[in-house]
Amino acid sequence: xxxxVQKLRPEELKKIGVxxxxxxxxxxxxxxxxxxxxxxxYFLEGEVTVETEDGETVSFGxxxxxxxxxxxxxTWDIKKPVKKHYNFK
Length: 89
Fold this sequence. Notes:
The protein is mainly beta.
């Protein structure tokens, strides 16, 4: 399962309504997470490395638009406090 990390232009973010999405914040921490549905999120702040169950590591942070696939299980390692808009599909 692939975690998709993109850089979207401001007009693309506006078109999909990111600024209307809820905001989630989390301090520096490490935790396991599983996705029951597709999550799209846009990072306003932070730095994160996610490790999937098959050993793949993906890093992202401020300014990144990230899509997590349904069914993914992973471990979040938050290196700098996170603030993100999120949306479940």
